Amino acid sequence: MASPKLHDFRRIVVKVGSSLLIDSVAGEVRAGWLTALAADIAELHRGGRDVMVVSSGSIALGRSRLKLPRGPLKLEESQAAAAVGQIELARTWSEVLGAHGIGAGQILVTFQDTEERRRYLNARSTIGKLLEWHAVPVINENDTVATTEIRYGDNDRLAARVATMASADLLILLSDIDGLYTAPPGSNPDATLIPVVEAITAEIEGMAGAAGSELSRGGMRTKIEAAKIATSAGTHMLIASGKIDHPLKAIADGGKCTWFLTPANPVTARKRWIAGSLEPKGTLTIDAGAVSALRAGKSLLPAGVIRVDGQFCRGDAVIVRGPDTHEIGRGLVAYDAEDADKIKGRSSPDVMTILGITGRAEMIHRDDLVVGTAPA
Ligand code: GLU
After folding, report:
1. pLDDT tens digits for 168-207?
2. Interval between CA 142 and ligand 1 midpoint (Å)
3. Which domain holds residue 87?
4. What is the pLDDT averaged over residues 269-279?
5. In what order do the strands lie in the sheet with 317-321?
């Protein structure tokens, strides 16, 4: 299959590793390189793309600000170094994107934020709102609180989860190597770059094991793990060199890289996940007007709900039934069962009065809703 083109994508996550962003000798941000990357991001942004950045560098920057000696850091040392470095990292991104009139929004996530559905919905809707406001979310792992057992540790897999969470259609991993090679390119003159990977086979995984890169934390193995996460959720991924100036422009111009293609698209893959893999925790029965609205592709509003059954939490999957109890669809509900019951049948302005908070307008957002799940 031919490689896609960068301008075919509408929502793009760009992952930038520490070794690209920070000069390992001076311990400073590589300002010239970053300015060029920001210009590339601004170009995509001007073209109407939603862009997100997953940026590493907090630990490396903190280490340099605190003048910590070289050598491995203990967990609490890297957490404290990240606390210092992340402030600097956020300021840097805010400045370089701000120079193009783009607002940067910092989002620090933990493993639980991406894996627990309630928290997942929170992170996802914040990212969605920032994109709607044409800001660029700048995301990193919350290294100051993440502990060894429950952390990503590498931003390759984190970026893949963020990309799938935000229904991005492309994840770009900027790396210190320009793609996946058949063998280690440094030591094997016959090694060739694989331009397109259509399926992550055992053979591809074998190449990743051999063609690791020493500089980046993740190496090629975590990049392949990231590709598995991304492609199984309908997000294409590519690995390209970030060692050149204007790396995104180079990709747009058809430069060297490895594409990992997915047969799905993020919305259908996500909907398949909602419809097929999640055990429903409750049922919402809705009126005829809401049934028509849902079938027309709209969200489910509290006003259309006539009955709430089951013990579910925000983010759980629920079955949606019509007034005759016929299954209409399934979705991720935005309220806990108790609150859903309180606001059923009520108009959106009432929700504020009843719950005392400005809740979400929808009971189930249309992106979280799959209509027509009942067996025929
Ligand atoms: N989250 C880490 C940091 O900001 C980096 C992880 C990685 O290098 O992949 O320092």
Report:
1. 999 999 998 899 998 877 778 888 999 999 999 988 888 8
2. 10
3. 6-266
4. 77
5. 305-310, 282-286, 317-321, 327-332, 369-371
Instruction: Check pocket membership of 225 for ligand 1, CB cut-off 6 A.
Output: no
| Predicted structure pTM score | 0.82
Residue nearest to atom 6 of ligand 1 (CA): 154
**In-domain check, residue 271:** no
**Between helices 58-65 and 75-98, what is the axis angle to 10°?**
100
C-alpha of residue 141 to centroid of ligand 1, in Å: 7
Cβ(57) to ligand 1 under 6 A? yes
Q: Whose CA is nearest to atom 2 of ligand 1?
A: 56
CB neighbour list of residue 2: distance below 8 Å, 6 or more residues apart: 196
Ligand 1 pocket member 154 (CB < 6 A): yes
Domain count, the chain: 2
Per-residue burial over 71-100, b = 16 or more CB atoms within 10 Å of its CB, e = otherwise: eebeeeebbbbbbbbbebbbebbbebbeee
Q: Residue ranges for the binding site for ATP?
A: 15, 175-176
Quote the CA–CA distance of 15 and 139 in Å, as a whole number: 9
Residue that finishes a domain, picked among 244, 266, 288: 266
Identify which of 172, 156, 256, 171 has the alpha carbon closest to the alpha carbon of residue 216: 156
The ligand 1 atom nearest the CA atom of 222: 9
Is residue 33 located within the same domain as residue 165? yes
Is 17's C-beta closer than 6 angstroms to any atom of ligand 1? yes
Q: Domain with 360 in it: what CATH number?
A: 2.30.130.10
Long-range contacts of residues 28-31, Cβ cutoff 8 Å, at least 24 apart: 28/64, 29/57, 29/61, 29/88, 29/92
Annotated binding site: 15, 56, 143, 155, 175-176
Assess whether the C-beta atom of 217 lies below 6 angstroms from ligand 1. yes
| Residue from 53, 59, 57 nearest 15 by CA | 53
Given a cut of 50, whether residue 270 has pLDDT beyond it is yes
What's the confidence (pLDDT) of residue 352?
A: 78
Q: Is the CB of 59 under 6 A from ligand 1?
A: yes
Residue with tokens 């209509």: 371
* 272 falls within a domain: no
Does ligand 1 have an atom closer than 6 angstroms to the CB of 58? yes
Token pair listed for 5: 């083109």
Atom of ligand 1 nearest to the CA of 60: 10
Which pLDDT belongs to residue 211? 41
